[in-house]
TrEMBL record:
The gene is GGH. PROSITE patterns: GATASE_TYPE_1, PEPTIDASE_C26_GGH. Belongs to the peptidase C26 family. It comes from Dendrobium catenatum. It is an enzyme of class 3 (hydrolase). InterPro entries: Class_I_gatase-like, Pept_C26_g-glut_hydrolase, Peptidase_C26. This is folate gamma-glutamyl hydrolase.
Amino acid sequence: MLRFLCVSLLVAFSVSTAAAARKYTLLPREEWAEELLHDFISGESCPSADPALYYQPVIGIVSHPGDGASGRLSNLTDTSNIPASYVKFVESAGARVIPVIYNEPWDVISEKLELVNGVLFTGGWAKEGLYFETIKKVYEFTLARNDAGDHFPLFAICLGFELLSMIISQDHDICEHFMARNQASTLQFVDISEIQGSVFERFPSELLRKLSAECIVMQNHREGLSPRRLLANDALSSFFKILTTSTDENDEVYVSTAQAYNYPITCFQWHPEKNAFEWGSPFIPHSEDAVRVTQLLANYFISEARKSFIRPPAQKVRDNLIYNYSPTYGGKAGKGYDQVYNFHDIVI
Ligand SMILES: *[C@@H]1O[C@H](CO)[C@@H](O)[C@H](O)[C@H]1NC(C)=O
């Protein structure tokens, strides 16, 4: 009887977890099933949405100079790109994307920033000129939004982390050289007690253990920050808490994940978006555990964006969504990003 009940319970779980948990020990099976059916039909067991959260979050992703395919798609100088893996990363967690095209006039960019609930800085190579200036202004917008009382998250990945380090330290040469091109690595947690309230807070302990022992995150960078240099810089050490470190080919240790103390800003020297969505390198981990890392990171990011108070006009959002553009298969050559969005209709 008990086993039958358990089997029924499993089936019923897909109908109503709350009702099942409430009733299965109290009522004979048939009565319970009837109650369950009643709850299901009347919908009375569906919890109402949390009014404090926004269930249609939109993320702005800043485009990066170039076609994202070493000129195979476009050589136009005003071309910029967003690798589709970042878009899928955001979409997979229940949000939509508005491309923030870095070389658009600032008034166009700032209008788009009014429509989003968080922003993402991608990897790449550009550290100078207009791209740097746009990243700096979007970062300053992020601070201002949060200072004004919103909860407006920023994920800064690889180059994004390096740029934030340069901006916050006001030192263009703050980054150091590392040998971490195209390799998978572990993450070493600096202080386990810091996991709560961080991007890793929803990770099961078994996966945290694997992160520190198995190479399931992807690195692809030549620069970075050693913990020593970050901590020696007053501006950086008062802004960032170091969550994890990793080790390069020469056994040099760099900061691989850092979180702002006072803002919902998380920086990654590694690439959470690649495990599930990029195939251009044989070193990208694609195991189930590796893909779970991508998914948990995306879920965390969008759970943060749902806390934002911005409720943008729906039609304006639709007019600016990345759905207005089509990605191109740039990875057919067996390298680089698999799919990229290119933008080159910019008049400045
Ligand atoms: C861009 O320039 C490179 C080098 O000249 C060339 O091989 C490539 O075909 C060009 N790409 C396009 C899309 O025209």
